[in-house]
Design a protein that fits this description.
Layout: H1 2-23, H2 30-44, E1 48-55, E2 58-66, E3 81-82, H3 86-100, H4 144-148, H5 180-193, H6 198-207, E4 230-231, E5 237-238, E6 253-254, H7 256-267, H8 274-280, E7 285-286, E8 310-311, E9 316-320, E10 323-332, E11 335-342, E12 347-353, H9 362-370, H10 377-381
Antiparallel strand pairs: 1-2, 1-12, 3-6, 4-5, 7-8, 8-9, 9-10, 10-11, 11-12
């Protein structure tokens, strides 16, 4: 029996070695980070990239590399860049504050907050075309939690539907399918149902609270003097879009210095109770597909699913060799962003790239900074070819 216990201890010790090695990974010094970022930019031909690193909940590196526009002006740590879908995580943090104040219940049907049935509201270009839901009473089951975990049943956006109308493709809350339209619906409920103005709420509750001086949900004139345009996959330039409408799904302009403050604040749970802060990155809904897009691809057989992968509130959660973590990506034709956090040591990396080609370097750069994390890169990016 003693020998058996010894063998078991030895097996457990060997099994723990990868976890121990990952946990002991040292955050690289600034010079090493600069060199690796330069190497990966050359490998991907990316023209601009910015990185922030948080260790033990503190910001330890904020770096910017390359150019912010075709004129060759340098990308700086206070250059305004497009936040894309990183907006969704900041929005979720705002929603959780409203929940803690008793203004919203994550699990109460959203119909209870509206003065009339959702499909009866006139279609408004600021929101979704809710009239498409007429005749489908499943909309009455929708809750804030379902929308934040991308389980509404909506397409990513209604304009992607063949008829341009909004439809529910499955019973709400039953599976994950990425939907910006779901976040816009929650914005609609906050604004029309609760009488809030989302841009002002996010400014007060998040951007001002954490000292994010060059971040906004809409365009500001003072951004123009230090602003990043973007590069597409073919190397062409796309001018920065001065977004004039607040969109919970992705209208945020920000800087890498400001995103460092936000990542640090959220990993430390600032602005929320311990319970509220934990709710953001608690696994809430299993993710059952091989990749994030296309949205309505068939679910994998049970034996092929990654059991540690789940939707949190506005983020994706995973379990890797360093313990539980969460991440959020952001993307358009000329933007590639990612935000990865490992919870036990309160370590995070935020990458903002004004060149979509930089996405191919994200796994290597995050691994260089944090070590092996378990981020589901292949699920996030599908068939994209990564560089080492």
């Amino acid at each position: 029996m003693h020998a058996l216990r010894s063998v078991r201890r030895a097996v457990l010790a060997v099994a723990a070695l990868p976890l121990l090695a990952a946990a002991q990974h040292a955050i690289p010094a600034a010079a090493a980070l600069d060199a690796e970022a330069s190497r990966l930019m050359a490998a991907t031909q990316a023209r601009g990239l910015a990185v922030a690193v948080i260790d033990a909940g503190r910001v330890v590196h904020v770096r910017a590399y390359g150019e912010r526009n075709a004129a060759g002006l340098p990308l700086l740590t206070d250059t305004v860049m497009y936040g894309a879908s990183l907006t969704k995580a900041a929005f979720a943090y705002t929603v959780l504050q409203l929940v803690e104040e008793g203004l919203l219940d994550l699990d109460r049907p959203l119909a209870a907050y509206l003065a009339q049935p959702l499909p009866d509201y006139p279609d408004d270009r600021r929101y979704g075309p809710w009239s498409g839901l007429a005749g489908d009473e499943r909309w009455r089951r929708l809750t804030a939690r379902m929308l934040l975990t991308h389980s509404s049943g909506f397409a990513n956006f209604a304009f992607l539907e063949p008829d341009g109308k909004l439809h529910m493709h499955f019973d709400p809350g039953t599976r994950y399918a990425y939907s910006g339209e779901g976040l816009i619906l929650l914005q609609f409920v906050l604004e029309r149902g609760l009488g809030l103005e989302l841009g002002a709420e996010m400014q007060r509750r998040v951007f001002d609270r954490f000292g994010m001086l060059r971040t906004s949900m809409t365009w500001r004139a003072d951004f123009a003097t230090n602003l990043a345009d973007g590069w597409k996959d073919d190397g062409s330039v796309e001018p920065h879009d001065p977004r004039g409408r607040v969109r919970a799904a992705g209208s945020m302009d920000t800087t890498i210095a400001d995103m460092a403050k936000l990542a640090s604040a959220i990993i430390n749970g600032e602005g929320l109770s311990a319970k509220g802060a934990t709710a953001l990155s608690t696994p809430g809904l299993p993710i059952t597909t091989a990749s994030q897009f296309p949205t309505f691809q068939p679910e994998l057989p049970l034996v092929e699913r990654r059991t540690d992968l789940a939707a949190g509130l506005g983020v994706v959660t995973f379990l890797g060799p360093q313990g539980p973590g969460y991440y959020k990506g952001g993307h358009n034709d000329s933007t590639g962003n990612t935000w990865v956090c490992i919870k036990p040591k309160k370590r995070c990396v935020v990458i903002l790239a004004n060149d979509v080609r930089a996405e191919r370097a994200f796994p290597a750069l995050v691994r260089f900074i944090l070590g092996e994390t378990g981020v589901p890169w292949r699920w996030e990016y599908g068939g994209l070819t990564f560089v080492d």
